[in-house]
Request: fold
Amino acid sequence: MTWFSKSTTTFGFLLLAHACYSAYEHSALQSHRAASLSSLSATQQQAASSSLPLDISLETIVATVIITLGLVLNTAKLRPIQWRVWAGQIERAGEEGARSSSGEVDKDYVGNPFKLLESRPGFVDIRKQRKEFAEWVKQQ
Amino acid sequence: MTSSLLRPPGHLSPATALQLSQQAPNIIKNSPGAVTASAFSSLFSAPETPELWTIYENLLLSCLRTGDEESAHLCLGRLVNRFGDDNERVMALIGIMKEADATDDATLEVVLKEYEALLQENPTNTPIVKRRVALLRSLGRIPDAVTALTGLLDFSPTDSEAWSELSDIYFSQGMYGQAIYALEEVLVLQPNAWNIHARIGELLLMSIKSGDQNDSAKQLGEALKRFCRSIELCDDYLRGYYGLKITTTQLLEDPPKPSKQAESDGLSPPNLPTLQKLDGLATEKLGEITRRFTAGERGWQGFDEAEIVAARELLEKSSSTTVR
Reply:
């Protein structure tokens, strides 16, 4: 899906750049024409030159919509907002569930936040852990 | 890999802890050792992040566990450098280091004396109080540990970790009633902790097994409710379904006589069709979880291998009894 959203965004930016360039060209042409006209007859009105043609305005609007669409399509997958779904994802998928498309685990992923109530880092018995680890090494 | 360094390493498997502590020299070499206070030089150095200090703390614990004292001392040195040795959390880490270095009980007594001296200065130094409780428990002086812990809970009754530790101490002494009470306090503070709900259910089942309670109907009913609540809070919670399956099997095999007290409390087990439905649901879910985990399906690999094996054994046992 990413190539689709990226190409959509790029296309939107191209359209927007084109619309800007057209608007610039239009105003340059208008002022040039106004200058040449005023040299011919000083009484000529130039109010009509100030408004952009309809197709340039439309192109700008369409470009903005397409860019927005591309950016929205490119956003990461939404996280679950229901508690049980969110909790279930943690239990079921572990770190896998928090991995983004590039394979990195999310920085703010904490796993089950209530696991601390069972592992209790403040009360860690470091000597027991060392003993258990030494036994594990012996078994290997 | 750094993501697991951001979480306390207590529950990690020995293999993961070893892996983490083997990375320690590398991480220490690549991370800034000190952050300068002057505004000018901070322009040129990497920005200080809170994660850096969490990593040092967890790395310290992993290294101590695996016996890599050199790296542990380096980590502690940097933490002391940054926060000073009068920071409460750093004081507790220094204490852990001393406990780990101690070779005999006499040295540990000295560490204990140091904790007590620190507490004389500031009796509400929570990390040190917790260290003292842990050390007392590790020395086997359970009554002293309980007294110290209830003292901590007196001045800080909202510390759910301490309530949970109290429950574990009571449980280790076989005092199920008190253990369950302490966990209920945890639930008051953390009502959404699905693992604590399941834990209470497990404690209730164990207290029925130990046979010192006479009102097993009420307790089975309550255990059933606890497991159901843990599943309600967490989809596909293996531990919850496992407990539910055990409870419903017990209730179906030998339906206890409904006692008047249980009924008036609203804790009597539900009627037979509901029980059978719950039993069917638990069997189905356990089957689904074990099947999908074994098939290596993506997004189902977060379970603990040992728990899956236990669930499969439970399922095989129950299916063999129904065939008979």
In short: The longest helix of chain B spans residues 272-294. Chain B has a mean pLDDT of 84.
